[in-house]
Structure formats: structure tokens, C-alpha cells
Amino acid sequence: MKQSSDGRYVIAAQLPRSHIYFYDVINRYYDATLLLEIFRQVSICITHRFYTIPHSTKFIFNKAEFNILNDTFLNNIRIPIEVTIKVNVVDKKRKTVSIIGLNLDMSIYVNNCLCVIKLMDITWMSDLVCKKLRNKPLISQNLQENKIENQILCSVKPPEVGHTFHRNVVIKELKDNFNEIITSLYIEQSYLGLFDHELDHVLGMVLIEMLKQTALIGIKKLLNIYAHRLELIECDVIFFAFCEIKTKTEYSLNKNELKKELLLNKDKIIKVHLSILQSNKVITSGSLMFKHVSLIN
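^ A-factor biosynthesis hotdog domain-containing protein, sequence as received from the core. Prediction below:
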């Protein structure tokens, strides 16, 4: 990791060929969720290394615009690759004189080829401030009478959402109504593949995976295209609030809207609009875009 100029950084990375979550895909390729995680880790590393932000600091990711431009190297793990991430600090958020956040323009290069770009917005706060901010909603959760019961087995099979391992399925209670498909978030906090450190809220990555899995099921029902034939190439998501662990989390996929999108489908690209609700309030919204592929190596 090095600073090439003021506000510009270059970081080397290694894409794992073995991981219980990131590499659990039916076709052996580097999934978009792994690339999103690389961007997240890089953004945090930069704040620690170059902005002297303490490791006890809590980070908030407000939004992310992610796009895979070239998947040639990502779709074949047998090819030796060198990965470089280039980061440009577009803007700094300040409170009085202190920097409390960054807007980042990030790019992943594989074997010197630009493959992925991402615009992201990250802010941070001290552990003490975060505890004060989180204390009220956590107390409210504990007082709720309609807490989530003990988790039940998912009715969704891993291949339906592009996985092989059942613990990587993050949706349950699949309801297929006339106009919509409704799924609920399935949380297994003891599963280290998704929760490798203690949290009082649901990770944004898990929410994106929930949206992705629901979208894959919807596309299969309407187009009869299987999950392993769909590749996530674009993600544009805004997070409005923390996703509370003990509050029921639902995603409703509108079939009519998806059908309209499918009618406009060009070049085998399918766009799915989304929103996640907790207590009837939208906590996340945006869109995902998939590419229909003949075969991923």
C-alpha cells in the first residue's frame, strides 16, 4: 500500500481461491460480493494508514455504486492474476476542522486491465459516539414483543441462489404472491463465513446478498433463467439506516416492475430495482444489474 500523490493511493490485493462464502458459487469465478468486500477493506485500511484513524473507530458505509466493466480475468480462476486497487479521494467530509468521512473513487485492475469501478461514501465515529447512537434502537429492539423467533431452516435451496453450501443462503420464508415475491432475511450470527466479528447490526454486504438472492429467484420464476447463468455486474445501493438484527427484515420484489424491465431487456442485461424494509420503513434502496451469460468458466 502506498500513496502516489495527495489523495491518491495504490494497494495490492490477492483474490482468494478458497473461501467458505466468497468462493461458494456453482461456477468457479470471482463473485461480485468478493470485489465489494475488497473495496470495503481498502477504504478502511486507507483511513488507518494515511489519516491516523484509530482501530477502535466505527465505520458507516452510506452508499455504493459498483460496476464490473471487464470480467475476462474474473471469470477464470485458473489464470494467474495480479490485482491492484487505485483509490482517489474525491471529497472529505468535515465536522468543524476534523475529517469524519471520505468520498472515494476506486478501481480494480487485474493484470493491468481495468475491470471494476466503485464510488463509495464512508464516514466514521468514535466507539463512544457510536454506542450512544446505537443505544436507543438496541433498547427498543429488546422491548419489542414481535422479536424474530429462533431461526428456522430456509425453504430456499442453495443452487436456486447460485450457491452450494446451505449456510450461505440468507433468505427464508419465501412467499410468491400474485404481484410480488417476498423474502425475509435469515441471520446466523455464529456463521464465521459472514459474521467473523461481533456486530450489533446486519452488515451491508449481507443485505446486498439478500437482494441478490431474491432477485435471482424472481428472474428464474419469470424468465426461467437459472442462477448460475446470471452474473451480478452492477450494484447501486443507498443505506438509510442500520439494519437491526432482532427486527424482521423483508424485501419485496415487484413482479410487474420486473416484467417491464425484462421487456426492455437488451444485450442480455437485466436490472432489478429494490428496497429493504424494517418496521415498514425503507432502510436500503437501489438497484442490481445482472448479465445473462451462456457459461462462466
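The CA atoms of residues 139 and 256 lie 39 Å apart.
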